[in-house]
User: Fold this.
Amino acid sequence: MAEKKTILIVDDHPFFREGLKSLLAKQSSYEVAGEAGSGEEGLRKAKEIRPDLVIMDIGLPDVSGIDITRHIRETLAETSVVILSMHLKIDYITQAFRAGATGYITKESATERLLECLESVSKGGYFIDPSLAHEVVESLMKSEEEEVKSADAGYATLTRREKEVMCLLAEGLSTTEVAEKLFISRKTVENHRSNILSKLDLHSTVELVRYAAKYGLIDVTTWKE
Assistant:
C-alpha cells in the first residue's frame, strides 16, 4: 500500500478546516497531519511536521498566506503548497505562484477540485482552478521584466526584496509592521527604504506612495490611513 501524503491545513476559519478534514478523511491517499489558524503558527508547524503538502489560505489574520508560502518553499524544498482562497484577483494568483505555490483553487471549487489539484501537485505538476479566466492564465506566463515595463527604468533596478518593502510601505504599513510581516529587522527595512528612495530619485514616503499608485503597484483602495 502506498504511503499516505501528509497535509497541513492553514486557514483561520475552524469550520472550514473541519470541512477540509472531513473531505480528506475519506481518501486513502492523504492524511491531515496538522492544522493552523494563523500564518506564524502555520510556518512553525510546517517546519515541525515537514508535510508533503500545505493547503494555504491567503487572508490570514497576521501574515499573508503568500508570504508564508514563500518562507515554506525557501526552507522546505520538498513541501508543495496549494493556495485555497476566495481571492480571484490576478495579482493574488500571480504573487502566489511566484512565491512558490504550485496550485491555486477557489474556496467555492474546493469540494469539486481540491482532490484533483492535490493529485496533480503531488505528481510534480501545476494546477489552476478552471473557473479562473483564461486571461489570468496568460498573465501568469508573463515575465516580471514584461510587467515592469509600465514603470520607469528605476523600478527595474530594485531587488525583489526592495520591491516587496516598497509596496508595503506604499500601502501604509509602518517600519515595524513591514519588519514583522517580512520577518526582518527594523534596521533592514530602513536600509531598504533608503535604497529604494535613492534608486527611484524620491525624497519621502508620500512621493513613494504617489509613485506606486501612478504605476499601479498598489491597490489604493486598501491604503492604510
